[in-house]
């Protein structure tokens, strides 16, 4: 037989498939101790005695006596996987920093000491966690991998169809009433105001695309967070200042606003969680708004760690993310407040300087200057009109949220529920 014929025959022979590991990600100390004992006493071979633990961990225990067992219990692992699955459904891509923060909270709450420094895992460990649960989480699909080649309208169309699928999948009582009540449809967004590092004056409003940057490279700013609903109700804004100690009142002239502070002035999960518990949830209860409610957030810059997911789930708050490419056309607060403010901020600063003998807008007087524009723009009629323009409510065929096909799907959901 010639060499070429021999090679062609070998190519047709399929190689045996390697059996997939049955490791479930949770091997405890008793499992390793039992496997070590059974192997040393020659009761079982190591491969059978290891049960659900990785073969390498059992080998290390047998040879060196050191035990490397899972840092999570099965319940901890289930909570994290459930959070990751939910984040995928609502269109939230979990940053590694948010994953690290959530894991640290789980470990600290359990009082568990690990090999991680300050209980914060590295990037490699986080990616291995994703790979271990890749099938359940389903982080990538065909549409998301091809979005970069699509136009903005096509990507908004995909977002709309995914939102409809999400509405169909959630299990809530009286779904038709939830979708038809504008009072139960909230949206929250944030904008950064850039600070000149030399003079300290606040000179411009940042674009949404500049709001999701590496914490190690982003610049100091003042962040304003606003929240409204479909009937024109408006919560007091949350203003996040850079710094820790203040020798002045940052909210002077705008006392009804809420305040937070971080090292660089960016919104973090701690401030967001505090705002939800102390401002947003009490406001819903005070106004007797029926639960559950829909809360649209900016997917590019809103921190949603495990604790916020569990808080919202327990309080009947259904989160869904607006993508960064459509914030300017789908976010009512951008239409009625931040976009007009961005184009006219230089005029606001110039007018303030003329009225106050050339004084500049800084952190000291920012709340006072911002209040005038806030009161001018955040009227009930403006908010309702912004919801209509964005398409978040009511749903129109010629608006961005729901295409004709998506709207027909929405009507089918409502009619099916009402029958």
From TrEMBL:
Name the UniProt key words of this record, in alphabetical order: DNA-binding
Would the keyword Acyltransferase be found if you checked this record's keyword annotation?
A: no
List, for all copies, the residue spans of the domain called HTH CENPB-type: 64-139
Molecular-function annotations in GO: DNA binding
The UniProt entry, under InterPro entries, shows:
DDE_SF_endonuclease_dom, HTH_CenpB_DNA-bd_dom
Q: Where is this region: Disordered?
A: 1-25
Q: What is this protein called?
A: HTH CENPB-type domain-containing protein
């Amino acid at each position: 037989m010639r060499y070429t014929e021999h090679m062609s025959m070998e190519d047709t022979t399929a190689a045996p498939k390697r059996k997939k590991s049955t490791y479930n990600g949770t091997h405890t100390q008793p499992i390793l101790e039992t496997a070590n004992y059974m192997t040393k006493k020659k009761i079982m071979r190591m491969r059978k005695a290891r049960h659900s633990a990785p073969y390498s961990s059992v080998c290390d225990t047998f040879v060196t006596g050191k035990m490397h067992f899972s840092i999570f219990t099965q319940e901890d692992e289930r909570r994290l996987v459930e959070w990751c699955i939910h984040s995928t459904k609502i269109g939230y891509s979990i940053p590694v920093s948010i994953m690290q923060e959530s894991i640290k909270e789980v470990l600290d709450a359990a009082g568990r000491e690990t090999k991680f420094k300050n209980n914060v895992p590295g990037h490699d460990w986080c990616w291995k966690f994703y790979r271990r649960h890749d099938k359940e989480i389903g982080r990538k699909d065909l549409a998301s991998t091809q979005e970069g080649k699509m136009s903005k309208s096509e990507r908004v169309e995909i977002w709309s169809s995914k939102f409809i699928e999400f509405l169909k999948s959630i299990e809530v009582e009286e779904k038709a009433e939830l979708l038809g009540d504008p009072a139960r449809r909230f949206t929250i967004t944030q904008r950064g105001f850039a600070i000149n590092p030399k003079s300290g004056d606040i000179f411009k409003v940042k674009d949404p695309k500049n709001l999701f940057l590496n914490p190690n490279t982003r610049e100091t700013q003042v962040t304003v967070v606003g929240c409204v609903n479909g009937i024109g109700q408006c919560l007091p804004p949350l203003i996040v200042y850079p710094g820790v100690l203040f020798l002045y009142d940052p909210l002077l002239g705008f006392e009804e606003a809420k305040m937070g502070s971080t090292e660089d002035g960016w919104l973090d999960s701690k401030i967001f969680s505090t705002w939800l518990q102390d401002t947003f949830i009490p406001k819903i209860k005070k106004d007797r708004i029926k639960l559950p409610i829909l809360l649209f957030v900016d997917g590019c810059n809103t921190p949603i760690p495990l604790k916020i997911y569990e808080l919202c789930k327990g309080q009947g708050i259904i989160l869904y993310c607006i993508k960064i490419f459509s914030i300017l056309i789908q976010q009512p607060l951008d239409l009625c407040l931040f976009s007009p403010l961005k184009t006219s901020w230089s005029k606001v600063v110039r007018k303030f300087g003329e009225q106050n003998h050339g004084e500049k807008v800084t952190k000291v007087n920012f709340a006072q200057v911002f209040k005038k524009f806030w009161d001018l723009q955040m009227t009930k009629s403006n908010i309702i009109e912004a919801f209509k323009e964005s398409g978040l409510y009511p749903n129109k065929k010629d608006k961005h949220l729901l295409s004709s096909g998506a709207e027909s799907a929405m009507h089918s959901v409502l009619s099916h529920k009402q029958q």
